[in-house]
Amino acid sequence: MSTLSELIDEGKKRKVTFFNKDDKQLLELSLLWAVIIAFGAPQLALLVLLLVLLEILNVKVDEKQLGLVQDK
Predict the structure, then answer these.
(1) What is the model's pLDDT at position 69?
(2) Residue 34 in contact with residue 16, Cβ under 8 Å?
(3) Number of C-alpha atoms within 13 angstroms, CB side, residue 58?
(4) 53: domain range?
(5) Which of 1, 17, 34, 50 is least enclosed, having the fewest CB within 10 Å?
(6) Does position 72 have pLDDT exceeding 50, yes or no?
(7) How many domains does the chain have?
(8) Does residue 70 form part of some domain?
(9) DSSP secondary-structure letter at 22?
(10) Separation CA 8–CA 23 (nearest Å)
(11) Of 59, 65, 68, 67, nearest to 28 (Cα)?
């Protein structure tokens, strides 16, 4: 089991990047800050989820595209 400090350190290392549909970078946060914002403003997290579903916004975690539906 990981300690809280190990989880925080891992969250600081990982990056979450938000792009518009033209792949222009809009915002880059550490995963730790993305989680803090999601807990602090759940409406914002739902808005981001909706924008991803509508394919208006793309999200990458550590340079890997975050998708809600996996291609076969």
Answers:
(1) 57
(2) yes
(3) 11
(4) 4-62
(5) 1
(6) no
(7) 1
(8) no
(9) T
(10) 29
(11) 59
Is 68 a domain residue? no
Q: In this structure, is residue 49 part of a structural domain?
A: yes
Task: Report the distance separating Cα 54 and Cα 36, nearest Å.
Answer: 24
Contacting residues for 35 by C-beta, under 8 A, at least 6 apart? 11
DSSP 21: T
Can you list the positions of beta strands (E) in 12-72?
A: 15-20, 25-30, 57-61, 64-66
> Given the structure tokens 């739902």, which residue do they identify?
46
Task: Provide the token pair at 15.
Answer: 């990056």
Distance CA 11, CA 67 (A): 20
Compute the residue count for the chain. 72
- Structure tokens given for 72: 């076969």
The per-residue pLDDT for range 31-56, each reduced to its tens digit, is 999 999 999 999 998 998 898 888 88
